[in-house]
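pasting for ref. prot 1 ->
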Amino acid sequence: MEGVLIKAFSFVFIIVLGYIFKRAGIFGSKDHKIVTKIIMNITLPCALITAFANFNMDKSMLFIVLIGFLANIIMSLTGYIIARNKDNKEKAFNILNLAGYNIGCFTLPYVQSFLGSYAVGITSLFDIGNSIMCTGGTYAVASGVAGEGGPKSIKGFLRKVFSSVPFDTYLLMLILAITGIKLPKAIYNVTANLSAGNAFLSMLMIGMIFECNFHKNQLFKVASMVGIRYLSALIFALIIYFFIPFSSEIKKVLIILVFAPVSVLSPVFTGLCKCDEGLAGVINSICIPISICIITFLIFFLK
């Protein structure tokens, strides 16, 4: 337990450090964008490639991709149903801020540090299905509901998805895993070195974007959204544990993944739909410490 807590505390410390440096003016208000670009274009893709070096995939594992996709669909529908008697902006807000899982910049570094490369491979499969929705699919639906984009959003969906370097890396490594093709060992050695900083940079970036400013009259909305999010995660976890026909090792990883925070893109897409971007940012930020506590407990308990 001591080792798990020390690692978890180090992650929290890095997040706090990023936040303090931002508040102190050492980091500028837009510096997180540089760190994000490094993560999304270098360290995260390299971490994914390294994870598949010794990953032997059974084709039944493709169902994990479907799980990641369906989890987003279910949460989007939940958001729509909850706001069924409210205006379209409220429906779009719920769709965007209940769906989507922050895997690449939050949960994957945790899995990478605590559970090893095999678990990263499982995480990558889940995130393929998740990425289809949270990098553009959910926004296309929400913008149509809100009346802010319509056909243009759907038309740009494939461009948004395939312009993501991590998503393209996911697909490439999935194809290689299915076909049994391995890259030269030298490539894995290089990517292993480059991916070493992924966990640190990801936690630092989270600290740099962390904000929690909202009005008292928004407290109920924030609490209800966060409550629904984690109650749904608990239901998903129980379904995975009792009904999904995978090994206990795979189930453990999937249970951890459904407790991931909301996608970092949710506030961005919320703003594009002319909804309350600031409130979306608060929900996103509040989910981070909650997920840290839950995932740390799960890693200790499930191991």
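and prot 2 ->
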Amino acid sequence: MTIWLARPTRFAFLSRGRARLALAALALLLAGALTSLAAPQPAAVASGTTANRADDQADVVLYESIVEDIRHGGNYYAVAAEELREGNYPMKPFVTFRLPTLAMVQAMLPHWAVIVLLYALAAGVMAAWFVRLRPTFARPPPLVVAMVLLAGGLAAFVQSDLAAFHEIWAGLLIALSLALRRPGRWMAAAGIGALAMLIRETAALYVAVMAVAAWIDGDRREAAGWAAGVALLAVAVVAHAYAVAAVVKPLDPSSPGWSGMLGFGFFVEAMTLSTALRLAPAWLAAGLMALTLFGWAGWRDATGLRALATFTIYAALIALFARPDTFYWGLMVAPTILVGLAFAPDALRDVIAAAFPKRRRITVTRLT
């Protein structure tokens, strides 16, 4: 018997010992999430006020300035170097320059068309996940809840002020790619994943997860398709590094590095700020983030495992390498992460039932 889902979660098939280990893992996950209460508090993605825009969206203003300079005939690398230098941004190593893909595309379009494209992509993500999740739930109400949770993850992705932000587009493309991938139907998903990498190279972590998962499943062709996207990115990055080297001067500032070592709590903090959980009290948001990851672990579907692996690898990236001012890396996986809360009720019920099975009553009847 299930609560919301059409079939039991993977926890329903655990032995009693393994189910108790899963409960212990959930307790550790909750404890780890609560460390976010002591994590650094970076500025939110957007304050929502025009007066503070230059302060809380400095990077967005930088990217918008680059796009405007290109629209007026500037070369991407020349204008990017000028804007970075003017804003006293680090210019070494070459990865401090974003890949030119997004800026070049936006420079070729009027601003209103960019906003329409952003909203259309967000709507496409909603539609793709509706189709993907519809068979998962036994009744319409929990499906509606799942879509509301998806909308909560997309809260930052429909803000027109953030249209120049690379993680916004890459995060939406990753979410769309994950929803579209099916066994034997992976080409569109792999192509969208490659596009996400060309906008923000850290999307390669997601593509790597998909390639490894396909290899483990025994689909060598699919694995090669995902790996081909990584090879394309490698070529683009080499060309990018060469172009950056031509505009950087010896005295230009270097990056302070990416060894923040802020821990899992900072990942939870980054996800809270990147989703509608920013409206909840910090302790409640931390607990819900732990439950959403547990819910994804319980969903008995290949997409669930791929999503969980993607969240895990980005959690490791942010926990180990992010600085307080790079919390926006969480936007890469923010669109879909809250959907796991829709799987959590069944996951909790199944793991508790497996960990503490009811004893069968034996009735002895004497027949004379």
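The chain has a mean pLDDT of 91.
DSSP finds 16 helices and no strands in the chain.
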